Amino acid sequence: MVHKKLMNARMILQSMELKKSGHNKFAGYQYFELGDFLPQINEIFHGHGLCGVISYDTDYASLTITDVDDGTNIVITSPMVEANLKGAHAIQNLGAVETYQRRYLWMTAMEIVEHDALDSSAPIKEAVIITPAQGIKDELPIEILRYLDELAVELIAICEKDPKAAWVRLEKENLEADQKVALWTLMPSNVRSAIKKAKG
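The chain above was modelled as a monomer; its predicted structure follows.
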Protein backbone atom coordinates (compact mmCIF):
# COMPACT_ATOMS: atom_id res chain seq x y z
CA MET A 1 0.00 0.00 0.00
CA VAL A 2 2.92 2.37 0.50
CA HIS A 3 3.27 2.88 -3.26
CA LYS A 4 -0.37 3.86 -3.66
CA LYS A 5 -0.27 6.19 -0.65
CA LEU A 6 2.93 7.82 -1.86
CA MET A 7 1.43 8.40 -5.29
CA ASN A 8 -1.64 9.99 -3.72
CA ALA A 9 0.62 12.18 -1.60
CA ARG A 10 2.51 13.29 -4.71
CA MET A 11 -0.71 14.23 -6.47
CA ILE A 12 -1.90 16.28 -3.49
CA LEU A 13 1.42 18.10 -3.23
CA GLN A 14 1.40 18.71 -6.97
CA SER A 15 -1.95 20.49 -6.66
CA MET A 16 -0.56 22.89 -4.07
CA GLU A 17 0.96 26.22 -4.95
CA LEU A 18 4.51 25.99 -3.67
CA LYS A 19 6.63 29.13 -3.62
CA LYS A 20 10.40 29.12 -4.02
CA SER A 21 12.07 31.15 -1.30
CA GLY A 22 15.64 30.35 -2.30
CA HIS A 23 17.28 32.79 -4.70
CA ASN A 24 20.60 32.35 -6.45
CA LYS A 25 21.31 35.95 -7.44
CA PHE A 26 24.46 34.91 -9.24
CA ALA A 27 22.88 32.49 -11.70
CA GLY A 28 19.57 34.36 -11.65
CA TYR A 29 17.11 31.69 -10.64
CA GLN A 30 14.97 30.68 -7.67
CA TYR A 31 14.85 27.27 -6.03
CA PHE A 32 12.98 25.37 -3.34
CA GLU A 33 14.26 25.43 0.21
CA LEU A 34 13.27 22.61 2.58
CA GLY A 35 10.84 24.92 4.34
CA ASP A 36 8.99 25.56 1.08
CA PHE A 37 7.63 22.04 0.87
CA LEU A 38 8.48 19.95 3.94
CA PRO A 39 5.65 21.27 6.18
CA GLN A 40 3.14 20.46 3.43
CA ILE A 41 4.61 16.99 2.97
CA ASN A 42 4.45 16.28 6.70
CA GLU A 43 0.81 17.31 6.78
CA ILE A 44 -0.01 15.10 3.78
CA PHE A 45 1.90 12.15 5.21
CA HIS A 46 0.17 12.51 8.57
CA GLY A 47 -3.23 12.44 6.89
CA HIS A 48 -2.40 9.38 4.77
CA GLY A 49 -0.64 7.19 7.32
CA LEU A 50 2.87 7.69 5.95
CA CYS A 51 6.09 8.40 7.81
CA GLY A 52 9.38 9.53 6.32
CA VAL A 53 12.69 9.06 8.16
CA ILE A 54 16.09 10.19 6.88
CA SER A 55 19.31 8.52 8.00
CA TYR A 56 22.98 8.86 7.12
CA ASP A 57 25.95 6.56 6.99
CA THR A 58 29.43 6.91 5.56
CA ASP A 59 28.46 6.19 1.97
CA TYR A 60 24.77 7.00 1.62
CA ALA A 61 21.94 9.13 2.88
CA SER A 62 18.55 7.45 2.75
CA LEU A 63 14.90 8.38 3.07
CA THR A 64 12.66 5.54 4.24
CA ILE A 65 8.95 6.11 3.64
CA THR A 66 6.78 3.68 5.61
CA ASP A 67 3.08 2.91 5.50
CA VAL A 68 2.26 2.95 9.21
CA ASP A 69 -0.80 0.76 8.63
CA ASP A 70 0.83 -2.27 7.01
CA GLY A 71 4.57 -1.67 7.51
CA THR A 72 5.52 -1.64 3.83
CA ASN A 73 8.20 0.86 2.89
CA ILE A 74 10.20 2.48 0.11
CA VAL A 75 13.84 3.45 0.53
CA ILE A 76 15.40 6.24 -1.54
CA THR A 77 19.17 6.68 -1.35
CA SER A 78 21.72 9.28 -2.39
CA PRO A 79 25.53 8.99 -2.29
CA MET A 80 27.18 11.03 0.45
CA VAL A 81 29.62 13.72 -0.64
CA GLU A 82 31.85 16.13 1.23
CA ALA A 83 31.44 19.88 1.51
CA ASN A 84 34.55 21.98 1.92
CA LEU A 85 33.46 25.51 2.72
CA LYS A 86 36.38 27.78 3.41
CA GLY A 87 36.36 29.16 6.94
CA ALA A 88 33.72 26.67 8.09
CA HIS A 89 34.18 24.14 10.88
CA ALA A 90 33.85 20.41 10.18
CA ILE A 91 30.41 20.31 11.81
CA GLN A 92 29.26 23.19 9.61
CA ASN A 93 30.40 21.33 6.50
CA LEU A 94 28.55 18.25 7.74
CA GLY A 95 25.43 20.31 8.33
CA ALA A 96 25.62 21.69 4.79
CA VAL A 97 25.83 18.17 3.35
CA GLU A 98 22.95 16.85 5.44
CA THR A 99 20.73 19.82 4.59
CA TYR A 100 21.28 19.28 0.90
CA GLN A 101 20.76 15.54 1.18
CA ARG A 102 17.45 16.07 2.96
CA ARG A 103 16.35 18.52 0.31
CA TYR A 104 17.21 16.30 -2.63
CA LEU A 105 15.88 13.09 -1.06
CA TRP A 106 12.50 14.67 -0.43
CA MET A 107 12.43 16.25 -3.88
CA THR A 108 13.15 12.84 -5.41
CA ALA A 109 10.54 11.07 -3.31
CA MET A 110 7.81 13.60 -4.07
CA GLU A 111 8.86 14.20 -7.71
CA ILE A 112 9.36 17.92 -7.10
CA VAL A 113 10.70 19.51 -10.25
CA GLU A 114 12.56 22.80 -10.36
CA HIS A 115 13.04 25.33 -13.17
CA ASP A 116 9.79 24.38 -14.94
CA ALA A 117 8.86 28.03 -15.20
CA LEU A 118 12.20 28.85 -16.78
CA ASP A 119 12.03 25.94 -19.21
CA SER A 120 8.51 26.77 -20.37
CA SER A 121 8.91 30.52 -20.67
CA ALA A 122 9.64 32.22 -23.94
CA PRO A 123 13.32 33.09 -24.43
CA ILE A 124 14.27 36.68 -23.74
CA LYS A 125 16.06 38.20 -26.67
CA GLU A 126 18.64 40.52 -25.32
CA ALA A 127 22.35 40.95 -25.44
CA VAL A 128 24.11 39.05 -22.66
CA ILE A 129 27.60 40.07 -21.63
CA ILE A 130 29.46 37.42 -19.67
CA THR A 131 32.43 38.63 -17.68
CA PRO A 132 35.23 36.40 -16.34
CA ALA A 133 33.91 36.96 -12.82
CA GLN A 134 30.45 35.74 -13.81
CA GLY A 135 31.97 32.63 -15.32
CA ILE A 136 33.78 31.88 -12.08
CA LYS A 137 30.59 32.23 -10.02
CA ASP A 138 28.74 29.89 -12.35
CA GLU A 139 31.30 27.20 -11.57
CA LEU A 140 30.96 27.44 -7.79
CA PRO A 141 28.49 25.27 -5.85
CA ILE A 142 25.38 27.04 -4.56
CA GLU A 143 26.33 26.44 -0.92
CA ILE A 144 29.68 28.16 -1.41
CA LEU A 145 28.00 31.07 -3.18
CA ARG A 146 25.64 31.47 -0.25
CA TYR A 147 28.54 31.46 2.16
CA LEU A 148 30.36 34.08 0.10
CA ASP A 149 27.22 36.19 0.03
CA GLU A 150 27.03 36.11 3.84
CA LEU A 151 30.74 36.86 4.10
CA ALA A 152 30.35 39.86 1.78
CA VAL A 153 27.61 41.29 3.99
CA GLU A 154 29.83 40.83 7.04
CA LEU A 155 32.83 42.46 5.37
CA ILE A 156 30.78 45.43 4.21
CA ALA A 157 29.57 46.00 7.77
CA ILE A 158 33.08 45.69 9.23
CA CYS A 159 34.57 47.95 6.57
CA GLU A 160 32.24 50.80 7.48
CA LYS A 161 33.97 51.05 10.87
CA ASP A 162 37.42 49.59 10.27
CA PRO A 163 38.68 48.71 6.75
CA LYS A 164 41.82 47.17 8.24
CA ALA A 165 39.72 44.78 10.31
CA ALA A 166 37.77 43.88 7.19
CA TRP A 167 41.00 43.00 5.41
CA VAL A 168 42.18 40.88 8.36
CA ARG A 169 38.81 39.09 8.39
CA LEU A 170 39.09 38.41 4.68
CA GLU A 171 42.61 37.02 5.00
CA LYS A 172 41.50 34.61 7.74
CA GLU A 173 39.13 32.94 5.28
CA ASN A 174 42.08 31.80 3.16
CA LEU A 175 39.84 31.69 0.11
CA GLU A 176 40.85 30.06 -3.12
CA ALA A 177 41.42 32.35 -6.10
CA ASP A 178 38.05 31.72 -7.77
CA GLN A 179 36.18 32.15 -4.49
CA LYS A 180 37.94 35.45 -3.81
CA VAL A 181 37.04 36.76 -7.27
CA ALA A 182 33.42 35.78 -6.74
CA LEU A 183 33.40 37.44 -3.31
CA TRP A 184 34.89 40.61 -4.76
CA THR A 185 31.97 41.00 -7.16
CA LEU A 186 29.52 40.93 -4.25
CA MET A 187 30.88 44.07 -2.65
CA PRO A 188 30.47 47.68 -3.85
CA SER A 189 33.46 49.43 -5.37
CA ASN A 190 33.98 51.74 -2.38
CA VAL A 191 34.29 48.76 -0.03
CA ARG A 192 36.67 46.96 -2.36
CA SER A 193 38.76 50.09 -2.62
CA ALA A 194 38.85 50.59 1.16
CA ILE A 195 39.94 46.98 1.76
CA LYS A 196 42.66 47.25 -0.88
CA LYS A 197 44.01 50.42 0.72
CA ALA A 198 43.93 48.80 4.16
CA LYS A 199 45.94 45.90 2.81
CA GLY A 200 48.68 48.24 1.59
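Residues 90-109 form the longest helix (20 residues).
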